[in-house]
Design brief:
Elements lengths: L1 H7 L5 H12 L9 H8 L3 H10 L5 H13 L16 H16 L4 H13 L3 E5 L3 H12 L6 E3 L7 H6 L6 E6 L7 H10 L3 E6 L12 E4 L12 H18 L1 H17 L4
Helix pairs in contact: 2-3, 2-4, 3-4, 6-11, 7-11, 8-11, 11-12
Length: about 270
């Protein structure tokens, strides 16, 4: 939508330029404003609002608003949060982060958690995958699990194609796939190929996911949406941390022994301060 506005801007009458300025200053608000509210904000008539959106290619204001809502639900950073208001206050940020944590952890089934941690402790190999912003979460869980058990690594190594990484999976392996919203095109196909290898799949995702849960052994949905710009991942990282803690518990003495071995090797290599 912003691209359409920029392309049409030079030919807009003064009133429609004010509408364009209002939308471009904060695209996220288009998802929640009414046509009358936008008209008041820009100091124009409702009819001018209708003409503006028809001029940039929409049948109506409502059609443009529906597109904005779809982009907001999909996590587009242009259509989430706000540029002004209370979004910058620490107390508001703290409140929204607590809501994300509660919204994520409250829907986690303890029996599912126990089942997953047992599988993480006993799987022959654990491979972790995440794209875009989900990548650092996959890296985090890889690093944590690798301290307490063998055969934990990224599914895709630098320089590898997806096919090369997936082909290494065997029946009984466990793939942790982190796929929070704004997943790349082809995400579901990758999950399907992992499932076809016979590997079990733990899918860490959000409520916008479709199709992939049907292919996963377990699916954990995390809340990511907040009133502020950019998604929050505090819920997702708490889930991953909880899985690591429960996996160490499931490993028992074997996990402790492996951790001690890693620590002793660090000391001999003088790797940390």
């Amino acid at each position: 939508m912003p691209q359409r506005i920029h392309e049409a801007f030079s030919g807009l009458p003064e009133g429609e330029r004010r509408i364009a300025d209002s939308v471009l200053e904060n695209p996220a608000e288009l998802a929640v404003l009414t046509g009358s509210e936008l008209a008041t904000r820009a100091g124009v008539s409702n009819a001018t609002v209708s003409r503006f959106f028809r001029r940039i290619g929409y049948d109506s204001f409502d059609q443009a608003r529906q597109e904005a809502r779809k982009l907001r639900a999909g996590g587009s950073p242009l259509f989430t949060g706000a540029r002004s208001g209370s979004g910058g206050h620490l107390s508001d940020l703290l409140h929204s982060e607590i809501e994300v944590l509660e919204g994520t952890l409250s829907r986690l089934n303890p029996l599912t958690l126990k089942d997953i941690s047992s599988a993480l402790a006993t799987a022959p190999r654990v491979r972790c995958l995440g794209y875009r912003n989900s990548h650092f979460l996959a890296q985090y869980v890889t690093a944590q699990l690798a301290q307490i058990r063998r055969a934990v690594s990224p599914l895709l190594l630098p320089g590898q194609t997806q096919a090369e990484g997936i082909a290494l999976l065997e029946p009984g392996d466990l793939a942790i796939v982190v796929g929070l919203r704004r997943r790349p095109a082809g995400f579901n196909r990758v999950v399907a190929e992992i499932a076809d290898r016979g590997a079990r799949i733990l899918l860490i995702t959000d409520q916008s996911v479709r199709e992939a849960p049907a292919l996963a052994t377990w699916t954990i949905e995390c809340q990511v949406d907040t009133p502020h710009f950019a998604d929050s991942y505090v819920g997702a990282i708490s889930i991953l941390r909880l899985l690591v803690l429960e996996t160490r518990r499931a490993l028992g003495g074997a996990g402790q022994s492996y951790l001690e071995d890693v620590e002793a090797l660090r000391i001999r290599l003088n790797e940390l301060e």
